[in-house]
Specification:
alpha+beta; 31% strand; 8-stranded antiparallel β-sheet
Amino acid sequence: MKRRDLCSSLALGALSALAEDVEAPAPPSTYIPQAHRVEDRKLLQDFMDEFAFADLITTAPTLRVTHIPVLLDRAAGDYGTICGHIARQNAQTKAFDGKQDALIVFRGPHGYISPTWYQKGPAVPTWNFAVVHATGKLTSITDPTALRAFLNHLIQKFETYEGTSFDFSKLPDAYVNGLLPGIVGFTMKIDRLEGKFKLGQDRSAGDREGILEHLKTARGERSLYELTESFYKLRA
């Protein structure tokens, strides 16, 4: 083999080895047309704070989804860190090893959009919605003091929102310490943050005005009150 060919071969081999060592960026978690892509970090984090009841999705050891309220720490990491907790008996706790990829989905309001609301036709119906996907790796919270502090912050957030006076920090230690073994807390530093806002923003000004006007009186889903009331009646 010629010296030039040998050097080229060695160089290509080194580049290939280096490429294998560098972890490729994770693929997107969902399809997002450019018109619906939102990358404003503050807007996405505000959304996550407001719609904090999220879907925690993992695929190892099996595909699992758990629906939980979570707490966002914006200052921890490039995109923030999410904290949450699930029941210890939930098999998803096996994914809290710092190695498994996880997806946390935040969902906002959504609704059917009639083509009759648009200024011009022809058009077809669609469904408008907004979601934020946060991906990263889950690590369990093993320190009971840290777990209790997280729970206090999580509960305080929603109690403040509801304007109530419950104070988790004032519960007796014996009572709280008896409950903590039943749950497992986790943290997830966000490695990737994706926003998909399909709200008709790519349509004409007239169409956007029509969407807003009709959404004021559009028939939406039942409220939590209405759903709960009807369910109670069914179970009575």
